[in-house]
Each structure stands twice: as structure tokens, then as C-alpha cells.
Design a protein that fits this description.
- The chain starts with 10 loop residues before the first strand and ends in an 8-residue tail after the last helix.
- It has one domain: Rossmann fold (3-Layer(aba) Sandwich).
- It has a 4-stranded parallel sheet, sandwiched between helices.
- It is globular and about 45 Å long.
- It has helices at about 20-30, 50-60, 80-100, 115-130, 135-145; strands at about 10-15, 40-45, 65-70, 105-110.
- With about 150 residues, the protein is an alpha/beta fold.
- Bound molecules: FE2/S2 (inorganic) cluster (FES).
């Protein structure tokens, strides 16, 4: 088993096309260095993100998740980010109740002009998740459920 010092976290970032994806692109074109542990999944708007995808990501091996879109009042669909934030607050309570480690999910706003903020967000998230270690607890539950779960008394 690897120690936390050589553990490379797998991070999935769900981002909106118009702000955070463009901000991440700017990070690259500005040649700012940031951790390569992140796989980006692009949505038209954070309002379109199905939060069950977060659980699916953990089940399939993610150790941490970033959700990021336009700043309040900058959403290209007017209020998609407010809608996402409201759903996130409700979903976060459910996750907490389920015992999902919500320290592993980072919710943020990054605009198209904030390439350095994107780099900081990724670097901090990777460092935080590295210190928490691999998220094996959730993956074990998902494996158990996938194999059919509990079928009655022992
Ligand atoms: Fe970016 Fe809606 S378009 S959050």
C-alpha cells in the first residue's frame, strides 16, 4: 500500500464551459504550472450537473472532486449557477447524512479570466486530498452494492 507521500490523487472536475473551462484553458495558455491529477468534464453550465455523478465518480475511483462554474451573476444562462448552488447545498446535507466525506468535494467559482485561480484551486485540492489519502471507504461500499449487496440474514 502506498503512503500519502507517494499517493497521487485522482481528481474529477465538473466545470461549466463558459467560465471555468475557459479559465482552465487560460491557465494552460499562460503556461502556469499546476498538478496534472485532474480530469475535466465540461458541461454547458453548472446548472446542468447531475450531482449523482459525484457519487458515480467516487464509486469509479475518484479520490476528490471539484465543481466549478461562473461567479454569481455571471452565468451565461442567467441563473444556472444559483440553481446549482441551491441543489449543491441540499445534496451536501444528504451526502453528509450518508457518511460521504464532503471534505473531498470542492465547490468553487472560477471565471474565464482567472487562470491563476484555477491553478491554485487544483493545487490546493490535490494537496488536501493527498493528505486525506485514497478514498477507499466509498469504493468498498460501491463494490459491495455492485455485487448485489446484502441479501438477507447471515
Ligand atoms: Fe457557467 Fe452557468 S454558464 S455556471
Amino acid at each position: 500500500m502506498s503512503s500519502n507521500t507517494d499517493f497521487e490523487p485522482k481528481i474529477i472536475a465538473f466545470v461549466c464551459n463558459w467560465c471555468t473551462y475557459a479559465g482552465a484553458d487560460l491557465t494552460g495558455t499562460s503556461r502556469l504550472k499546476y498538478a496534472t491529477n485532474v480530469k475535466i468534464v465540461r458541461f454547458p453550465c453548472t446548472g446542468r450537473i447531475d450531482f449523482l455523478l459525484l457519487l458515480k465518480s467516487f464509486a469509479q475511483g475518484a479520490d476528490g472532486i471539484i465543481v466549478s462554474g461562473c461567479h454569481p451573476n455571471d452565468c451565461h444562462y442567467t441563473s444556472g449557477n444559483f440553481h446549482a448552488r441551491r441543489r449543491w447545498i441540499a445534496f451536501r446535507s444528504i451526502l453528509d447524512l450518508m457518511g460521504v466525506d464532503i471534505r473531498r468535494i470542492q465547490y468553487s467559482w472560477v471565471s474565464a479570466a482567472e487562470g491563476s485561480k484555477w491553478a491554485d484551486l487544483v493545487n490546493h485540492t490535490v494537496a488536501d486530498i493527498r493528505s486525506l489519502g485514497p478514498y477507499q471507504e466509498y469504493q468498498k461500499i460501491a463494490d459491495y452494492l455492485e455485487k448485489g449487496g446484502y441479501h438477507g440474514e447471515d
